[in-house]
Amino acid sequence: MKQLRGFIRKEFHHIFRDSRTMLILFGIPIIQLLLFGYVITTEIKDARIAILDKSHDEVTREITHKLLSSGYFRLDAMLDNEGQIDNIFRQGNIKEVVVFEQNFGKKLERDGKADVQVITDASDPNTAQLLSNYTNAIVQDYLQKKFVNYKIPLEIKPQVRMLFNESLMGAFTYVPGTMALILILISAMMTSITIVREKEMGTMEILLVSPLKSHHIIIGKVAPYLILSILNALIIIGMGYLIFGVPVRGSFILLMFVVIVYILLALSLGILISTISDSQVKAMFVSVMILMLPTILLSGFIYPIDNMPVALQVFSNIMPARWFIEAVKAVMLKGVGTGYIWKQILIMTGMTILFLGISVKKFKLRLE
Amino acid sequence: MISAENIEKSYGEVKALRGVSLEVKEGELFGLIGPDGAGKTSLIRILVTLLKPDKGSATVNQLDVVDDFRKLRKQIGYMPGRFSLYPDLSVEENMTFFATVFGTTIEENYHLVKDIYQQIEPFKERLAGRLSGGMKQKLALSCALIHAPKVLVLDEPTTGVDAVSRKEFWEMLKRLQKMGITILVSTPYMDEANLCDRVALIQDGNILTINTPERVTQNHESILWAVRSDNMYLCIRDLRKHPGVKTVFGFGEFLHITLRDNTISPTALEKYLKERCHTNIAINPIEPGIEDVFMDLMQKHDN
Amino acid sequence: MENENTVIRVRDLVKKFGQFVADDHLSFDVYKGEIFGFLGANGAGKTTAIRMLCGLLEPTSGELTVAGLDGFKQREAIKRRIGYMSQKFSLYEDLTVNENIRLFAGIYGIPTHIRKEKTEELLEKLELGSARKKLVRDLPLGWKQKLAFSLAIIHDPSIVFLDEPSGGVDPVTRRRFWDLIYEAAHEGITVFVTTHYMDEAEYCHRVAIMSAGKIVALDTPKALKKEWDATSMDGVFLKLARSNE
């Protein structure tokens, strides 16, 4: 136990004394999140919209007025027919078109239900998402106040269409995605590099000749990164909440449990990489090629899995990040409990055991 | 203390060791001497349990290097060929770390390393990577000794180190030997053979001879002559042309030559050189050194 | 002692890095066809000095002439007139012997029509004909060494610099290598060797010993050994180092 503590202390010395490691550990997560934050505009002001009012009744006029007086929107054009919508979007000046169906007010009073169509330019998906959310909120707000004493619950059904990017990626997916990426980067790449560095420097020779057992070496190497990765996950969740308003709707403990399961998975991958690499460059290369790029491209982080060719969809099943993102989204955004994500947790645990098993088999007690 | 029997080791096509046997007695300072690629490192790594031999067996302190490797690892102090400490840890942190790893403390075995460690103690806060070559070595040696090993195995500790540090290092080894530690040390420098109790000359995976340094040179068969003249290059060429001359090798300011079954006398040889316009010729018999013997054995082995 | 045979002329050569004086007023001459040894412990200033002599580094002050060229203003020209071989051999390990020869011949601007002839000549001299299609990394260390040296002088430079050329090889291979060096010197190429293997110093015609940025001794090995009452250069070096402490 004392040996292990000494080993872990040494690892922390390595980490804290290397400015590059520190940068990767704490600089990259923050920079990456802020970069996404820069891309995601959370403030909407004077967004130019067009309105196609096929009804021209009191209700639609009042809703239009509400929208335009909210400060979020500015009227660019009143349209006469649907044929103009496509054109006006292509000109690129406006962000959103709101379409009221015919006899909007009458329908609402008669059926308690009316349709408003919100069409947004989703080539900037985050803005599009926000605009439609704002529009929606304003319409609902109007309804509640106007028909406060009405007997049956009224409903305006906004039909949101995201033009140019139908399968919109919501702003909220960035936080789970970034977390998936950062954790695999830190846990897998950094652990594999730090183990391989001992091989490169020749210190592994001395460690092997010492009475240390291989699990001492592995735990000693991995423990600091487990702690730092958890810290990182907390930073990302905290920044996501404070800066971008990404909520944690489900149980925080469950969320951290998922995070830790994923970190352990990434660490076991790191150990596995270290057993097959003999140089830091190779470990880095393997980490980037088989972990980072597929994580970004195939985990559903950037490109929705449903839109992938079938072969890649099948392939994405073996991406650890895919299961992690699914589970984290479910807990953070949908607020579900363990019952809904046991499958993801089970898959990640299985992968961890598999990788650890192979690593322990491959980790050599001698040089070869 | 150390015993190796008929050890073979290959890396793919390359044969590193071709049946090596040796014995190191308790308390001995034993030198393994040979050039790069002779098999020194492979043999040492097998003895410290880092490699498995393909064939043959070895024991250190009666423990088998393959079967009892866990027990054995606690008893061996090993200093690998490259500087193998953590450059980003301070002198003291390196020492503490290796002490902890071996389940001991600096204080417990301080008497063993005191001599050596005192010389670097003033710099104990300094990062190991910023030490000079000689100091790095002292630190590495201190770390290898911290768990009071019975056997100390050093792989080329003096390679790439300047003459002054080399001399100091051997003095340290001598002192450790007096404390009862058995020492196996490898080196490519032939001149260091004389500092060992016994040496094994190794070349191309074979042991050429094992003996005390004195015996090694005494066993040299042919008479050796040291020759010099003003133009050494032409002297080499002319000597090689002479049928009675067997070998000609440059040795600093002299050429060391052996003659074929003493077919030609030194006086005749001097005359031969004079005829070829050499000036300031001197031909004298000399005692062979380890390097002469090594070259002789090496060529015999090749034939 | 100055004459037309002076290939390297150094007077009061100083190199400073900020406040740190790496080389402190070095003065010496190296003559044509001489094997000149340059010794010193790590950090004594050897590497800095060699870099200035090779035209890689501009001196801070003093005078420096290499092969008749000025060490301040004509550094590019110096680089073309010298050969250089380091411990790491500067050969391309993943190219064959032939390819390496062709490459270096090309780098040094050997005209195409004599390149082939030169290659054959070299392969024959090194007895490497049978290995011409082999990758350099598969050659024994001694062969690499000889090939690297021959390529360093393929353009018939006035001087060749050898940076710790022969550590660790077996004694026979080492002698064969020195045979090549002697031959080059005999043909008029000046050989400038840095090393911290003292036994290698014995092969040099003259040696300079550096310590803490200064040249503390310069003479033939024989004279140095006599002066310091030592049987080997190792002994000279030890006594010098002690006297400087």
TrEMBL record, chain A:
Keyword Transport: yes
Positions of the ABC transmembrane type-2 domain: 132-366
Keywords, comma-separated and alphabetical: Cell membrane, Membrane, Transmembrane, Transmembrane helix, Transport
Places the protein is found: Cell membrane
Membrane topology (UniProt): Multi-pass membrane protein
Pfam name, any one: ABC2_membrane_3
Listed PROSITE patterns: ABC_TM2
Claim: Ribosomal protein is one of the keywords in the record: no
Transmembrane parts of this sequence: 21-40, 171-196, 222-244, 250-273, 285-305, 341-360
InterPro entries for this protein: ABC-2_transporter_component (IPR051449), ABC2_TM (IPR013525), ABC2_TM_bact-type (IPR047817)
Superkingdom field: Bacteria
Gene3D superfamilies xrefs: abc type-2 transporter like domain
GO cellular component terms, A-Z: plasma membrane
Any one Gene Ontology molecular-function term assigned to this protein's record: ABC-type transporter activity
Family per similarity comment: Belongs to the ABC-2 integral membrane protein family.
Protein name: ABC-2 type transport system permease protein
Source species: Prolixibacter denitrificans
Automatic annotation (TrEMBL), chain B:
Taxonomic classification: Bacteria, Pseudomonadati, Bacteroidota, Bacteroidia, Marinilabiliales
GO molecular function: ATP binding; ATP hydrolysis activity
Entry-linked CDD domains: ABC_DR_subfamily_A
SMART domains xrefs: AAA
Species name: Prolixibacter denitrificans
Protein name as it appears in the record: ABC-type multidrug transport system ATPase subunit
Record has Magnesium as a keyword: no
Record SUPFAM superfamilies: P-loop containing nucleoside triphosphate hydrolases
UniProt keywords, alphabetically: ATP-binding, Nodulation, Nucleotide-binding, Transport
InterPro entries: AAA+_ATPase, ABC_transporter-like_ATP-bd, ABC_transporter-like_CS, ABC_transporter_ATP-binding, P-loop_NTPase
UniProt cross-references to Pfam families, sorted A to Z: ABC_tran
Similarity comment: Belongs to the ABC transporter superfamily.
Domain ABC transporter: 2-229
Residues of the signal peptide: none
Automatic annotation (TrEMBL), chain C:
Keyword Hydrolase carried by entry: no
Any one GO molecular-function label of the UniProt entry: ATP hydrolysis activity
Lineage: Bacteria, Pseudomonadati, Bacteroidota, Bacteroidia, Marinilabiliales
Chain ranges of the ABC transporter domain: 8-237
SUPFAM superfamilies: P-loop containing nucleoside triphosphate hydrolases
UniProt KW keywords: ATP-binding, Nucleotide-binding
UniProt-listed PANTHER family: ABC TRANSPORTER G FAMILY MEMBER 20 ISOFORM X1, ATP-BINDING CASSETTE, SUB-FAMILY H, MEMBER 1
Classification via InterPro entries: AAA+_ATPase, ABC_transporter-like_ATP-bd, P-loop_NTPase
Domain of life: Bacteria
Species in which this protein is naturally found: Prolixibacter denitrificans
A Pfam short name: ABC_tran
This protein's name: ABC-2 type transport system ATP-binding protein
